[in-house]
Amino acid sequence: MSQRLDQPPFSSPRSVLPARSVRPSPLSLSLFFLLLTALFPLCAQLSSPFPSKDGPEGERLPLALRPADDSAWPEHPAPESPPEGPRHPIGACPHEPLQCPAHSCPWPEGGGEQQQDTQLLNVLFKSQIEKEGVEHQLRREIEIQAHLQHPNILRLYNYFYDRRRIYLILEYAPRGELYKELQKSRTFDEQRTATIMEELADALMYCHGKKVIHRDIKPENLLLGLQGELKIADFGWSVHAPSLRRKTMCGTLDYLPPEMIEGRTHNEKVDLWCIGVLCYELLVGNPPFESASHNETYRRIVKVDLKFPASVPMGAQDLISKLLKHNPSERLPLAQVSAHPWVQAHSRRVLPPSALQSVP
User: Fold this and answer.
1) Model confidence over 78-119: pLDDT tens digits?
2) 267 is in an annotated binding site
3) Which helix (H) or strand (E) holds 28?
4) Residue 76 pLDDT > 60, yes or no?
5) Domain boundary among 153, 171, 189
6) Closest C-alpha among 174, 170, 183, 179 to residue 220
7) Does residue 218 contact residue 252 with C-beta atoms inside 8 Å?
């Protein structure tokens, strides 16, 4: 059993804080969402849901939501080193989702058109966010995720808040976490793994095109839609970095690339390393550099001490080996991940109906 980083005090392993079940009646839900629809124009004009710690009482900080292609987006430094904890979002925000799958209702999109979607109302308590010091991380997650629209990225439609809580309106992923399905089956077959790799490559190409680096791709941060399509979630460790070069250590121990461990600057190619580790874990059942101690794990990552069991197909070994390169510039580009012969031979990607339209 490998040692993992100690979990933060507000998160359970591999998950977020267990939610308190709230099951409103259908009538109250209908009235609630009608009220939300009326309040959204007002909410959009509100300032940050967090009080300023420096200004007078009642003063609030701006959330600074801006277009995804705005080169003036601020960079958001992560902590210089992550707290020690197991494999889950380091510094994750305490989520308390309503247990019903939200409400199916018309949602205004661009141009006044109406689109039927199912939303999840995610409730976060300000006291917990401030206590754990993750306000900055939540701001970053909202700033980035609200402007990403891709069939394999979980949508953040809007947010609003009151004195005690912050409410996020999220796309509902009915099949839950990829990690839970991996736990049940232990490993995935070639078809499912190759499909996930194609979906990830496409979604990350979209993110990188918008100068967004996720930096924490792993089974816990991947959700599944109605047809089993992948949904990248949890952008709390991602960053909008116009220069695409950073020098902060974040993410999960087993998925950390050599450049982060060695304290070097990193760019979007950290995501290539992460999907290589993920591909290995999906096929084998554990990450490639998992060891009995932190130091041994670090050593194996830096040395790229990669060993394949006989059960891993040669095509998958070729793909993983080309992604897990010590030199970031030598890692296989995302476009070539999608075009890799093993991925093309086994992927059965299914796009939801909304994806038939062009991706922004």
Assistant:
1) 334 433 333 433 233 333 333 333 333 333 344 333 444 688
2) no
3) helix 26-45
4) no
5) 171
6) 179
7) yes
Give the pLDDT confidence of 196-206 residue by residue, as tens digits.
999 999 999 99
Residue 305, annotated as binding a ligand: no
347, 193 contact by CB (below 8 A): no
Is 221 assigned a ligand-binding role in the annotation? Answer: yes
CA–CA distance, 38 with 45 (Å, rounded to integer): 13
CB 95 within 8 A of CB 138: no
pTM, two decimals, is 0.68
Domain span holding position 260: 176-349
The answer on 209 and 228 residing in a single domain is yes
Torsion of CA 190, 192, 194, 198, to 10 degrees: 180
Q: Is residue 73 part of a domain?
A: no
Residues 215 and 340 in one domain: yes
Is 275 a domain residue?
A: yes
Would you call 174 helix, strand, or coil by DSSP? Answer: coil
Per the domain annotation, does 60 fall within a domain? no
Q: Are residues 124 and 227 in the same domain?
A: no
Considering the domain architecture, whether residues 163 and 304 belong to the same structural domain is answered as no
DSSP alpha helix (H) spans, 115-262: 126-132, 135-145, 178-185, 190-209, 258-261
Rounded distance between C-alpha atoms, residue 106 and residue 271, angstroms:
35
Pairing mode of beta strands 114-125, 165-171 = antiparallel
- According to the annotation, is 84 in a ligand binding site? no
Please name the residue ranges forming H helices in 249-311: 258-261, 270-284, 294-303
Q: Which residues are catalytic?
A: 216
Count of C-beta atoms within a 10 Å radius of residue 7: 18
Q: How many domains does the chain have?
A: 2
Does the annotation place 234 within a ligand binding site? yes
Specify whether the CB–CB gap between 188 and 282 falls below 8 A. Answer: yes
